[in-house]
Amino acid sequence: MSESEFVRRFIVDGFSFDQSMAFSEIFEVKLGYVSMNPDDGEVVLTKAEKNFFISIGKTCDNGVMEYNSRIGKKQFRDLWPSTQGRRIVKVRNVMYFGNYKIMIDQYKGNLLGLTMAEVVFDKKKNCEKFSIPDWFGKEISDDSMFLNSSLALVKKLDELGLKWKSA
Question: What is the rounded CA–CA span in Å between residue 130 and residue 99?
């Protein structure tokens, strides 16, 4: 089944994860890009736990609009080689902030040390009226450097030019 959602993204720096945080889920996510044209839409394969998806994402005002569809494990395996050199691995921590779902992603590999938060909205108007929590850093929803498709090409974290508070 396909669904449409809006997403806003933020850098999270100096944020510490502790036992008191109420994460509803923690799992590894693998992303591989088949197509990487943000103007026309990106096509991405995703493996999250035992679930497999193919998605199309397109940048729009106030975030990214995504369309997601489940695929089978065989379809995923058949398409995965086409993503060589355009992949990301991250640990996703899911929590709720009021009525909003927040996904805190801790990147691995070449992006080790990068942590970002994504907030998912079902309607654009909810996206626009969201009150940003104090522990969120810079909003990067409109910064193409922080799209997962761009991050999949980063060889070293220094390429992002971030100044870390926690460093």
Answer: 10
- Global confidence as pTM: 0.78
- pLDDT, one tens digit for every residue, the chain (167 residues): 335 678 899 999 766 665 556 778 889 999 999 987 756 778 999 999 999 999 987 777 766 677 889 999 999 999 999 999 999 999 999 988 888 889 999 999 989 989 999 998 887 777 878 888 888 889 998 888 898 888 999 988 888 887 655 44
Domain of 18, in residue numbers: 3-128+135-152
- How many domains, the chain? 1
